[in-house]
């Protein structure tokens, strides 16, 4: 029972409340990051949908990633901005549960989606003649659906384990939002059994996809080095390089947070890492994919005038 007798009606999110001088700079950074995230991801979604030349598996998955990143930041940032702006540190129990489940679900979905995107690049580079057959519409749809379904299923499991802990009235969450490592520290019981179960699920969601990504890019690197054309190698490395930068930023910080005991995580460092993969990475994703991708830049030039100036 999630709302057991030890569950308060609300939680207090401490954030950096012990460092008052950080509140205004943090507010400004969050506001700017969130604005860029919204504009960048909505732009990518619109361009991928409106430009027929981008109706390919790669950009179908990129659209999914943009939708995911948009929801990911919206789960936490607006509430953080309100709390900092109004010097209000509370979140209702229901709000905390919703935030935990959605944030965890979207994070797990992104792990799987990035692995699917790496498989798409593997087929494009290493099996170009079979690409259209393998990456057909229904296969792409099933892979995307699998990522979303598995992400939310994992979230329900991990959230139920986290929320069922005895908290003995503890309600001060030493974080900006409701996240598993921070909520585990509220428990007044031994958390080691739960930590072991959470570690198992986190390993499945984090390490298996990242291993598949590394294997895919190992084959891609071999194939690219065999390409005789310098232009061909440059294009392949450019497209795959964008994906690898995103993978490194997201997985590096997520593995740091979820594959070690909460007690071993530095309090302030853990908050900064969470801010990075929860807010900064979704902001950087559209910039990385658009600035490093020639097809995307050309599509922006074709589509944006139609959107903003009603040109055909």
TrEMBL record:
Annotated localization: Cell membrane
Membrane-topology descriptor: Multi-pass membrane protein
Classification via SUPFAM superfamilies: Family A G protein-coupled receptor-like
Key words, A-Z: Cell membrane, G-protein coupled receptor, Membrane, Olfaction, Receptor, Sensory transduction, Transducer, Transmembrane, Transmembrane helix
Signal peptide: none
Chief localisation class: membrane
Single GO molecular function: G protein-coupled receptor activity
Domain G-protein coupled receptors family 1 profile: 40-289
Sequence intervals crossing the membrane: 20-47, 59-79, 91-117, 129-149, 199-225, 237-259, 271-291
Gene Ontology CC, one term: plasma membrane
Entry similarity comment: Belongs to the G-protein coupled receptor 1 family.
Name of the protein described by the UniProt record: Olfactory receptor
């Amino acid at each position: 029972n999630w709302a057991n007798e030890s569950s308060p009606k609300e939680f207090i999110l401490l954030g950096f409340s012990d460092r008052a001088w950080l509140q205004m700079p943090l507010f400004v950074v969050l506001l700017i990051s969130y604005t860029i995230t919204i504009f960048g991801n909505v732009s990518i979604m619109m361009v991928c949908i409106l430009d027929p030349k981008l109706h390919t598996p790669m950009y179908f998955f990129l659209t999914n990633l943009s939708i995911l990143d948009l929801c990911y930041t919206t789960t936490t940032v607006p509430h953080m901005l309100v709390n900092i702006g109004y010097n209000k540190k509370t979140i209702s129990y229901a709000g905390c549960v919703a935030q935990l489940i959605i944030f965890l679900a979207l994070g797990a979905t992104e792990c799987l989606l990035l692995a699917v995107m790496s498989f798409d690049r593997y087929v494009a580079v290493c099996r170009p003649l079979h690409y259209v057959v393998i990456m057909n519409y229904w296969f792409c749809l099933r892979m995307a659906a699998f990522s979303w379904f598995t992400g939310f299923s994992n979230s329900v499991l991990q959230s139920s384990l986290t929320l069922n802990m005895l908290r003995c009235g503890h309600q001060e969450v030493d974080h900006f939002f409701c996240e598993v490592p921070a909520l585990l520290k509220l428990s007044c019981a031994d958390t080691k059994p739960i930590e072991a179960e959470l570690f198992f699920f986190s390993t499945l969601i984090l390490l298996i996809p990242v291993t598949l990504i590394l294997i895919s890019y190992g084959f891609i690197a071999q194939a690219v080095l065999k390409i005789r054309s310098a232009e061909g190698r440059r294009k392949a490395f450019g497209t795959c390089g964008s994906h690898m930068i995103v993978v490194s930023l997201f997985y590096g910080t997520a593995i740091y947070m979820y594959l070690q005991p909460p007690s071993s995580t530095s309090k302030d460092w853990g908050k900064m890492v969470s801010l990075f993969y929860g807010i900064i990475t979704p902001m950087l994703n559209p910039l990385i994919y658009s600035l490093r991708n020639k097809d995307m830049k050309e599509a922006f030039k074709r589509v944006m005038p139609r959107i903003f100036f009603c040109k055909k």
